[in-house]
Fold this protein.
Amino acid sequence: MKYLLFSLSTLLLLILTACGGASSISVDKNSVSFAIDGGEENVSVTADGSWNVKDCPDWVKTETQEGVIIIKAERNETGAAREGNIVLQGKSNVEATITVKQFSKCTHITPASDEVEFEKEGGTETINIDTDGSNINVEAPDGFSATFADGVLSVTAPTNEEGAKRGEIKLTCDNQSATIYASQKGSICPTCRGTGKVKCKSCGGKGYVTHAYSDDWEDDYGCSDCGGSGKDDGSLKLGSGRVKCPDCGGTGH
Ligand SMILES: [Zn+2]
Ligand SMILES: [Zn+2]
């Protein structure tokens, strides 16, 4: 009985192939990729007749069901990434191709750039990453977020209401790693941290300067650069020890 069923189904398939070979075949994915561990992927097939699997890489197994092809790959033990094509055929000149890739152990993570910079308004920037790793782990510092997909790292920074930010984004996979330096301009001046003032260089913030005339004769003078005046004969007026920030002109922004 089993044999009969088999024969019947084979016959049916032959008839279908002979008479009903699809004149159009399309697939919902032209490529599938597997991580080093392998797995299973389904691709939907739309055809107006019967089709069969004409070509398939030897490291891939397929199973066909109504309107779908199930693609399976074992763990990749070859030590190298691999790629091949599955070709579906309807009528003799009607084909659809699905490219199958499988990653191996990650051998490199190479960013196209090792820095990403944002204006204070923030936004999203992308960096192409050349890698054969399939499960790249991404760590972003505070104030930034980062995701990796299909060879592209997307880094996002929200509007920065504070001081300038810097941080390192780490990409790791197996024994490989890469660092990308992220920075964002801030809404406040990083030199004075928004205060608009910095320590007076002339007096080191003391508000006065000392002049020594000899070993036993010196006078303190109010630092004129930060608003002081007079000397220590009773007229001394200390300076504030702070001067306008040279980077922001005192605005703090
Ligand atoms: Zn400043
Ligand atoms: Zn001063």
The chain has a mean pLDDT of 90. The pocket of zinc ion (ligand 1) is lined by residues 189, 191-192, 196, 245, 247-248, 252 (CB under 6 Å). The domain at 18-102 is CATH 2.60.40.10 (Immunoglobulin-like).
